[in-house]
Specification:
Shape: globular
Number of helices: 13
Number of domains: 2
Distance between the termini: 20 Å
Structural class: alpha/beta
Strand content: 15-25%
CATH topology of the largest domain: Aspartate Aminotransferase, domain 2
CATH superfamily of the largest domain: Type I PLP-dependent aspartate aminotransferase-like (Major domain)
Largest sheet: 7 strands, mixed
């Protein structure tokens, strides 16, 4: 019963096997291998457009280097206050961006509101050289709170950003989950809605360590692409045995593999949500669109789950295992490797009658 993260389980066997195959013999270094070319071609087919791809090993590197490529050091990147780049990347965007500024915006379930974005862009840089200048909008889909942006919502925010001369970056560490949950095409959830750069995450969905930074419309983004290439090298993410990154992404994108894994994560998340909604005293506090739930658990149920070995993260306000003395607030995440039996056991423990262990 491990619901800590979709990072917690190992890589998919198919990914490991693909890496083992790519490990044989000699191929070009630093991405000059046939697998890298095939990955780019696969992505062109999936996204139905021309694009340029760079592979890195972590989501933090993908986001930070991508944002640095479209923002000068005196630029402002607008993001939600709970975005990964704001809360969980140790200042990497600011560091790799040479001092760029993150402007935190509000919004329910970590979704940015249109009015808040428009106001922030208008206000930013109004005093010329005395202020940082608008440079980029960063969205996350699924959001850090497990909610889903629709194509219309992305397009509305992208229109505001572009009108303010900002590039649009999408943190897609769970983009596959968003595609499955929405029923939209990858193109509709990205470039057709105004996204300029997508950081497509595979690590949380089966890869060992592989993320793709995708620039749509390469001719228009020639300067950003050139900047990214040098920043990736300078940042230590131009991997010499690049074929091992390419092999992961190539296997992950083959057929419906990447979407099928996300579909399992989402299905387990919805199975968990359905079970918990039927239990008195347990509350789901977010728009649980896919595989991430934020819940309130009565203290007795929390103690019972912990005693049975269930693993999940508590929200900062509940870092004490006693919470507020009545309940705790927790995050539950299902992964492509979450067994249905684990979900059912968790729900069964929550539904048990009687006192939990002290």
């Amino acid at each position: 019963m491990n619901f800590t993260s979709d990072n917690s389980f190992g890589a998919a066997p198919e990914i490991i096997e693909a890496m083992a195959r790519a490990n044989e013999g000699a191929l070009g270094s630093y991405g000059a291998d046939p697998l890298a070319a095939r990955v780019e071609e696969r992505l062109r087919e999936i996204f139905e457009t021309d694009l340029r791809v760079f592979l890195v090993t972590t989501g933090t590197a993908a986001n930070a280097l991508a944002l640095a490529s479209v923002s000068p050091p005196w630029g402002t990147v607008f993001c939600h206050a709970e975005a990964h780049i704001a809360e969980d990347e140790c200042g990497a965007p600011e560091f790799f961006g040479g001092g760029l500024t993150l402007r935190h915006l509000p919004g329910k379930d970590a979704k940015i509101g249109q009015e808040a974005l428009a106001h922030a862009i208008t206000e930013c840089g109004a005093r010329g050289v005395h202020q940082t200048q608008p440079a980029a909008l960063s969205l996350t889909n699924l959001t850090e709170k497990g909610a889903l942006y629709t194509p219309d919502e992305i397009a509305a925010l992208a229109d505001i950003a572009h009108a303010g001369r900002c590039a649009v970056h999408l943190d897609g560490t769970r983009f596959a989950n968003a595609v499955v949950a929405s029923g939209e095409t990858p193109a509709d959830l990205s470039w057709r809605s105004g996204v300029d750069i997508l950081c497509l995450g595979a690590t949380k969905n089966g890869a060992l360590a592989a993320e793709a930074v995708i620039f749509f419309d390469p001719q228009r983004q020639e300067a950003a692409i050139s900047s990214f290439a040098f920043r990736r090298k300078r940042g230590g993410h131009l991997v010499s045995k690049g074929r091992l990154l390419s092999a992961q992404m190539d296997a992950w994108l083959e057929g419906e593999f990447w979407l099928n894994r996300a579909a399992h994560s989402n299905a387990m998340g919805q199975r968990l949500a359905t079970g918990l909604r039927a239990i008195g005293g347990v509350g789901i506090t977010n728009d649980a669109a896919a595989n991430i739930l934020f819940v309130t658990l009565p203290l007795a149920i929390h103690r019972r789950l912990r005693a049975a070995g269930a693993a999940y993260y508590l929200e900062p306000a509940s870092q004490s295992e006693e919470g507020d003395g009545v309940s705790v607030r927790a995050r539950l995440v299902c992964s492509p490797s979450t067994p249905p039996e684990s979900v059912d056991s968790f729900v069964g423990l929550c539904a048990e009658n009687g006192a939990a262990p002290a």
